[in-house]
Design brief:
The complex is a heterodimer of chains A (155) and B (427).
Chain A: H1 4-28, E1 37-41, E2 49-51, H2 52-59, E3 73-77, H3 82-91, H4 96-108, E4 116-118, H5 121-130, E5 134-139, E6 148-153
Chain B: E1 2-4, E2 18-20, H1 30-53, E3 62-75, E4 89-104, E5 107-118, E6 122-139, E7 143-153, H2 184-188, E8 189-201, E9 204-215, H3 222-227, E10 234-249, E11 254-268, E12 279-293, E13 297-312, E14 315-332, E15 337-347, H4 356-362, E16 370-383, E17 386-397, E18 415-426
The chains are: A alpha/beta (155), B mainly beta (427).
């Protein structure tokens, strides 16, 4: 019992430090290595790279099919999450509020649909791995062999 | 009293051959109607929380969304969407439910029903705002081309299509010079078809929409706004045209748009004695829109001429070109808190901006023909589905003031202010 407590405490300390460094990252507008996001897709997707414009129109729910004609399924974390915020800014070069506004405009004008929302990183990985045509994003440390990482090209 | 009057209302949708000065019905009692509104909002809030915590039982290609807003309005003079002159009125609220289904990747079915109450200008009926089928046979990473049919939202300016959804706009009242709430149903959607094309390039994204259809001239409040009263006859929408070209750079950092419409309707007199002879109304606005979005701030402006022609109604043909423009700056203190400042101006007749000619011709006050609105407001986005807003307007002139809530013209004042609060939900 006594052996467990220090371990738990050090875990809590580590978690606290993680939160602090996250706060610092947010304040600096800088994504530290632990928070680097990668774009991930379902293994049935044959492409390996996407340019930033295409990626933006996919996550903006404007582009609904892959080049082979199969439907795209977009997964995102909650708008308020830091991981979502970093993904939008670092990978899409867009502010989270712009993405949210773009989705609202599509949904409430009857011209498109919103992306599917997931609550946790585990759920993100599971849904992208299990859904044909799926695309999402995860921090590097959470990626396993069930999903494929897409390289993002910048012009 | 009813009588013909030389287009003194002519302008954005507030034009008219005839004015009214008879007494309208007494505005509703704010407190009496507040209670059901609270119950509805509370129930919605509970549903939203329950649904959002439960597993989504619907298939992924079927989506349901809800939005609702309850507003409290008080004015220093003149009534706006209720009995607001020195009273707090709660007679301004909206609830909408929309659904969309994508049975195939190139087909989308979508529809929205809305309940809306806005003082005497809207009666709280439920109406179909849109119901459409969208088919996009040509789609690639570079472009998308498709057609839509049914009851379609009119793509005018940045906000018209989603004008009722509080989360999609910066303020409680949209700039009234452009988003005239008196003719809301008419402006919102039309029955017809639309061709659209999207082009995505390294220079930016281009979105073109071109539509043809019949405006909802028979909708509640339209006759009142266009003709000045509800006459025995009927206002019928004629074949009309509408289009918008929208350009977005860097995912919406810079947004530019030009939209225009040629909106036609005619009046068919009812059984005699109908005091109003037959006539045609043509409304042809052009709107230029520009927006820059930075992380902390956004700058938005929309402006344009608004043509209005009235032909028949027992008089000669009259064309008026109105002018509308606004500039707005919005600042985000945090992702949850934002505030804005806006200056919005409307001239019903660009050739008579101060309304002096109008006054000489009609004997009515010149300030009926312009409105200069200085607005400051703040929004608190509590979470993804709840927000609260407050805003203050100082207005010189009454060009866009709904007359349904101000039936005694002699009581209308030139300088007035509005204070409004809003609670809005969406899911």
């Amino acid at each position: 019992m006594n052996l467990v407590r220090p371990a738990r405490q050090s875990l809590q300390t580590a978690a606290r430090q993680g939160i602090y460094s996250l706060v610092i990252c947010v304040l600096c507008g800088f994504a530290g290595p632990g928070f680097t996001q990668e774009v991930i897709v379902n293994p049935d997707i044959s492409i390996t790279t996407l340019d930033v414009n295409t990626l933006r129109s996919i996550f903006g729910m404007r582009q609904s099919t892959w080049p082979d004609g199969s439907p795209i399924r977009v997964y995102v974390l909650d708008d308020g999450s830091d991981i979502h915020g970093h993904f939008a800014k670092d990978k899409l070069n867009i502010f989270p509020y712009q993405l949210e506004q773009a989705w609202d405009r599509l949904v409430f004008s009857g011209t498109g649909q919103a992306p599917s929302r997931v609550e946790t990183l585990d759920e993100m990985r599971e849904r992208v791995a299990a859904t044909p045509g799926a695309i999402g994003y995860l921090p590097k440390d959470w990626i396993d062999s069930e999903v494929v990482v897409i390289r993002v090209e910048r012009p | 009293m009813r009588g013909t009057c030389p287009s003194w209302l002519a302008g954005i949708g507030g034009p008219g051959a005839v004015f009214r000065s008879e007494n309208g019905s007494a505005p509703g009692n704010g407190l009496r109607v507040l209670r059901p509104a609270c119950v509805v909002l509370a129930l919605l809030a509970m549903t939203v929380t329950t649904v959002s915590r439960a597993e989504n039982p619907l298939p992924e290609n079927f989506q349901i969304h809800v939005f609702a807003a309850q507003n409290a309005v008080i004015t220093s003079a003149n009534n706006l969407f209720g009995d607001t002159d020195h009273h707090v009125s709660f007679d301004f609220r909206e609830i909408g439910l929309n659904g969309s289904w994508r049975p195939r990747h190139d087909i989308l079915l979508a529809g929205q029903g809305t309940y809306r109450l806005a003082g005497n200008t809207d009666d709280g009926s439920v109406r179909l705002d849109y119901g459409l089928i969208d088919y996009a046979p040509f789609s690639s990473p570079e472009y998308k081309v498709g057609v839509r049919g049914g009851r379609l939202l009119n793509p005018l300016g940045f906000y018209n299509e989603t004008r009722d959804v509080a989360f999609t706009r910066p303020s409680i009242l949209l700039p009234q010079s452009i988003y005239f709430d008196r003719t809301r149903d008419l402006a919102l959607s039309a029955d017809g078809g639309q061709l659209y094309g999207d082009y995505y390039s390294n220079l930016g994204d281009f979105y073109l929409q071109a539509g043809i259809g019949f405006p909802r001239a028979g909708a509640k409040g339209v006759e009142g706004a266009l003709l000045g009263d509800d006459f025995p006859g009927e206002l019928v929408g004629d074949l009309s045209f509408l289009g918008r070209l929208l350009y977005e750079r860097d995912g919406g950092r810079l947004r530019l748009a030009v939209s225009g419409a040629l909106d036609k309707q005619h009046y068919e007199p009812g059984e005699p004695p109908d005091p109003l002879p037959a006539g045609d109304i043509t409304f042809f606005p052009i709107i230029f829109s520009a927006q820059y979005n930075a992380e902390k701030w956004s700058l938005t402006s929309e402006f344009g001429p608004r043509g209005f022609t009235r032909d028949g109604f027992g008089g000669s043909t009259a064309t008026t070109i109105g002018e509308s423009a606004y500039v707005e700056g919005l600042y985000r203190f945090t992702p949850k808190w934002e505030a804005f400042l806006r200056y919005d101006v409307l001239f019903t007749d660009g050739g008579d901006r101060d309304g002096k000619e109008f006054e000489a011709q009609t004997g009515l006050p010149n300030f009926f023909r312009f409105a200069k609105d200085m607005t400051a407001g703040a929004t608190w986005r509590f979470n993804r589905w709840l927000l609260a807003r407050a805003e203050y307007h100082y207005v010189n002139g009454t060009a866009w003031l709904p007359l349904e809530d101000n039936t005694n013209l002699a009581d209308i004042e030139q300088y007035w202010s509005i204070f409004a609060l809003q609670i809005a939900l969406r899911y």
